[in-house]
Specification:
Helices cover 32% and strands 17% of the residues. The chain contains 8 helices and 9 strands.
């Protein structure tokens, strides 16, 4: 079972995102355990202070190092059974390495992931320097807090744990994993970096005059697969040309 422990000043934030669909089922079937921990529990003053003014002046407040260290250290002590190499301590930060599908695959193999959510102007840098094993950003924009980012990481990682999805094949055919070399069954290392997936259609065959591509109704699986590969490559070229080399490289191997 993969344990996610989220350190936050808003533990109640997480009541919603994990109580539906695949995330809910993954908890019920004990593939994952997700716990939000209130950072204020790890303070010692009567006001339960978690933030202070930045050294050097400037606007806003900064989350203090001490409660964050105490929270994470107590989680490590409580989870001693987790192998050191399979534990990850992640600080959510717009300054972190960009979170990708490849990173999600790597994290899906961990036993314990501790996620630290910043707020205000951020977190005392000593947390990034001396406590976190990595800093992750979910994109080049600034959120008000790390909670949404933590929920994104938990969601993307959980669906990659074997057994979480109804259909395991779909992991390898998803965008960012898909390569034509994976073939129609997706039998390939899904953690490899690929391009975007192909467009999908469902009933009715015609909607407001727009028809579903005829090939998809032909029953010819080889031709359908060829069409899907072409469409996947075309969409990758249009929307994400930066991913195109991944597709081309895999296709010729
Ligand atoms: N002053 C900081 C800066 O400019 O880098 C931004 C702090 S932000 C307002 C507050 C918190 O939100 C951060 O400490 C982080 O935990 C979270 N956060 C904001 N944007 C994020 C992103 N793109 N990815 C992950 N976490 C983010």
């Amino acid at each position: 079972m993969l344990h996610f422990d989220i350190v936050t000043i808003f533990p109640e934030f997480f009541a919603g995102p994990f109580s539906h669909g695949i995330l809910k089922r993954a908890q019920e079937t004990e593939l994952v355990k997700i716990t939000a921990h209130d950072l204020r529990r790890f303070t010692e003053d009567k006001h339960r202070t978690v933030d202070d003014r930045p050294f050097g002046g400037g606007a806003g407040m900064v989350l203090k190092a001490e409660p964050v260290f105490k929270a994470v250290e107590s989680l490590i002590a409580a989870g001693m059974k987790h192998e050191f190499a399979r534990r990850e301590i992640i600080l959510l930060s717009p300054q972190g390495k960009k979170f990708t599908q490849a990173e999600a695959f790597r994290l899906a193999e961990r036993e314990s992931i501790i996620l630290i959510c910043g707020r205000y102007e951020g977190v005392d840098e000593r947390v990034a320097e001396h406590l976190a094993t990595s800093e992750l950003s979910i994109g080049d924009y600034v959120l008000t807090g790390g909670e949404l980012a933590a929920a994104v990481v938990v969601d993307a990682v959980t669906r990659l744990i074997p057994g979480a999805l109804g259909n395991e094949v779909s992991r390898a055919l998803d965008s960012f994993s898909f390569t034509p070399a994976a073939g129609p069954t997706g039998k390939m290392d899904a953690a490899e970096v690929g391009g975007l997936s192909w467009p999908q259609y469902t009933r009715p065959e015609e909607f407001r005059g727009w028809k579903v591509p005829e090939i998809l109704m032909s029953g010819n699986h080889r031709e359908i697969q060829k069409w899907r590969e072409e469409k996947a490559r075309g969409k990758t070229a249009r929307m994400r040309p930066d991913l195109l080399p991944n597709l081309e490289f895999k296709a010729v191997r």
